[in-house]
Amino acid sequence: xxxxxxxxxxxxxxxxxxxxxxxxxxxxxxxxxxxxxxxxxxxxxxxxxxxxxxxxxxxxxxxxxxxxxxxxxxxxxxxxxxxxxxxxxxxxxxxxxxxxxxxxxxxxxxxxxxxxxxxxxxxxxxxxxxxxxxxxxxxxxxxxxxxxxxxxxxxxxxxxxxxxxxxxxxxxxxxxxxxxxxxxxxxxxxxxxx
Length: 194
Known about the structure:
The chain is an alpha/beta fold.
């Protein structure tokens, strides 16, 4: 692309990953769902409730909860401004162990916020699962401060290398992406976009 994408966090990026498109493709979403279920079985500690991060994590959390026959909740970006003013929707009992489901991790700011909202209600969160992560240093800091373990299916470095192998990206484009991963906050300025 000639023009970078701007994330919710304000960071400019040469890549944009849209996992929301998976909801429209049953075959592909089943591949992702089965991969997530396998990862959960291998890595994640036992849990009682599945929590989807609004909005893109909600469908994946619903499919996981359905397959595992577990309750599900979801956490809004901010509490509702009407009704009961809930940030967390669904039934969560004090002491229940919760697996948080995200579609994508960039800075992990939303994952940290969601974890805090669940803990405020007495839920216990130790693990977070995502389809994709950019593996940014800021996400490592946020997840460490939230005391949450992240498990994911793939990341930006792996995807960029696979895109190069398939002929979708050239080495210069891969280098640009990997340079962004190292310093996303200053990348836009360095590249002359800011």
